[in-house]
Structures
1.
Amino acid sequence: MANAGDELTYQPGHGTGYGHNALGQELTAEMKELDLKPGTSVTYMQDDDSGWALVKWVDDVGIDRITAIEPDQFASDFT
Amino acid sequence: MPLLSAGQLMQYAQRQALNAVFLKTQSPAAAATYMALSTSATSGVLNSTDLTMAGTSINEYATASGYARQSYGPVAATAASPSLIYNTSQMTWGPFTSAPGTANWGICTDGASGTGTNAIAAFLLASSRTPSIGDSLQAAAGTGSAGVGFLAQV
């Protein structure tokens, strides 16, 4: 169980980005640049009311992001 | 006229602003604000009397799509008349893990998640956006010019 402020790394077994994995195929070049990629450091913020985990991270273009992660995926892919 | 057809402060913020300006109460402490996305139709749905994000007219994107509110991070209100406030950085939502629907509004609120946070202001998007699975949705940094960024004025 993560606590607010914990630093984690997105390391999915499938080795693809968060959006890429959801789509099930390669993203366009523009969307690929904005995807949450394996090896990205994230900071756990809190769980949403729905139980999804909110994580903060910085994308490849330097923009601060907050993304909601499905609970089982958060447990398995963020270490 | 509570139904919104363009961006404006919501009832919660109207009251906060008037009470602060006319020295009835102290302003709330400085804190982070966040930008939500809403699927409410561009007219005739969003109601300025909705005090929180639980309001029935708010219609925020569902978190179970990878969506989360993004930091608004506005400038300090400009020393001008009308005084302006707007986001300083580009904002990007997603990537989405399921299609979240069509976004027509940005709604500023004072919490990163939850329906109990206060609805501060609504901003009509210059054009609606319907992201697909895997997409990220971007909004431009504000410049102080109308139509560029999430800009509010008094």
2.
Amino acid sequence: MSWVSWRRVRQAVQILSFVFYIILIFAVVQKRVAPALADIFFRLDPFSALGAMLASRQWIAKFALALVTVGVTLIIGRVWCGWICPLGSLLEWVSFRKARQRAKSISPHWRLVKYFLLATSLALALFGGLTLFVLDPIAIFTRTLTTAILPAIFYAVNSIETAFYQVNFLTPVLDGFEGLVRGTVLPVEQPAFAQSLAIAALFFGLIALNLLAHRFWCRYLCPLGALLGLLSKVSLFRPMIGIDGTSSTSCTRCTRCAVVCKPGAIDTNPEDFHIMPSECTVCLDCMASCKPGDIRFRFRMKPAQREEFDLSRRQALGALASGVAGVLLLGTDLRLRQDNPWRIRPPGVMDEEVFLSTCIRCSQCMKICPTTALQPALTQAGLSGLWTPLVVPRVGYCDYGCTACGQVCPSGAIPLLTLEEKRLSVIGKASINRDRCLPWASGVPCIVCEEMCPTPQKSIRLEEAEVIDSSGQTSTVQRPSVLRDLCIGCGICEHYCPLEGDAAIRVYDA
Amino acid sequence: MASFVSSGNDVIIKPNICTDYHPPEYASTTNPTVVGTLVSMCLEAGAKRVRVMDYPFGGTAKSAYAISGIADAVEAAGGEIHIMSQPKYIRVDIPQGRDLTEVEIYPDILEADLLINVPIAKDHGSTRLTLGAKNLMGVILDRGMMHWNLGQRIADLTSLVRPTLTVIDAVRILTANGPTGGDLADVKQTDTVIASRDIVAADAYATTLFGLTGSDIGYINACADMGLGTMDLSSINIQEINLG
């Protein structure tokens, strides 16, 4: 098979992988049960796997799959980046004509940023911090789809449907469409997420960087790419020009290969014309374009040569020092010294510190939560808890019949619970503000909280009381109070409290 | 059923599928056999289509339909499980409404040739019991506002929806910790199904299973006061059919 055909295979794999990723995204939106492969892309991701294991100091069996990616990389290089990574594919497809020209003015030294980021992230992880893993490429893409892009799509579809339902003859068509997609592809509840704008800005910002260079993120920034790049330096098979790199006989230095190379992995310095394995995404474009056909995979045991942008020992120490400085700064955050009543974690999370050093900030839990109760944290858990999941009951309650978040958590930060365990898992405690509660404050009958309370013995007790209403009439109302020992903090009371604004019953971290 | 269904009718059955927490033995959702049987009867009587729907407050519609056993029962009987989707809701006036004068409602409920209301009889904190009229709250979106004057607003909603037939499932009733349930000790086997064209009469009769009367329940009083039916059980013809 020619290299042109092999390139077609690569493009097909890329498309299939991307489509599969998107299908999984939709399959996991606001569901009660996760499909088996829901977290497969994270499990294949050695950067997150290594980080979570370093930080939590344990072997995480679910991440064993990441060894497959490591193995493939050690054999043939960054296949992940060129064939599988959905963000990488997207960045390859969104390309700007002028980017190649502009990239020439960017010093190759900038490539060290990704290695620096990798070293800093791992140093931070070594001391238990996973904050920088918000920059994992799969996490960035998934988080943006979850919190910004999917809600926007659902909002658009719902708005169009609402408008078209006004037109009578369209009703059967819309009903048919609804029957097909509602509850499967389209969630019944419109999702909305905190900080979706900031999350989307990061994502679209790094797409916009493609204006400066093809696959800008992959070249200069991606910490996962950096990790795989380091492994590629010792991969067994490497794409090489000529038999011994530079001493090729048939290479005419036409630089056609360098022109087509999206990640810019070919050093065209006439003194040292070569492909840099650490930057190559194994896309095969150079091979397909080489007229003499002299670029091939060649077997090498010796590590690849040093590149000018590889971290020097001094730079590597600098990266480690940054990681340590980060640990110190994040660890002395005032937020971590104060109890935060709104820091309510998903069911089964017992210890905040363990949680912060296991959660890879992937946002899968937020995506699957059927009530969209799980929201990305800003500073509620300190800056080190950025974009970790919090239960926000006014937005959504923790469904008494659901264990979905634990099913999709790739690192086990949210444990996989049985339904029985989940129902006993206390995530907070509800408390009534009697100055706002209708029966307490105004003598108006209302006990929605008690009605909604899902525990078999209601965690809210009602007591009858004589009250005098605003017109001076005496009447009897039932007043709710929380039975603290029974309450599991699911927050359905807070969610449905009919008061406008803040609920009169709120769940506090407990 | 032949007296309710004409050939080619589009029928909607509205059970109480309030949450996705418990299987049917817990008596928090309508008995699937009752729902399935009604679907079969409608289809046998010539209905073109029978759809079953509710909008749970706990969990998703899909999971609540499945866990309640109603999805299986309805599909086995040849009916359709239907998800009530937000874009379709419309705002309508309630001409007879005394307190609630307009509401956002799922339009199919109003447009169906026949609407059969199939609540389960169970305990409920604010209204004491949830029965036929209370079950109609499942067809509107904003239930929070209903609680500002619950009894009257349920009656106002009932005046708009007016199901042709109300079938109260009291095969198992939930006597405490309703409407969500979860403790089998609160479930009582009463093996009764109450059917009436008069939603108020059906509700009033069902209260007797709990040792109460219609006048104990705010929304039954309010419905009767609006002339939506009678809660005077002595004035109606009650046929008890004992199936052993």
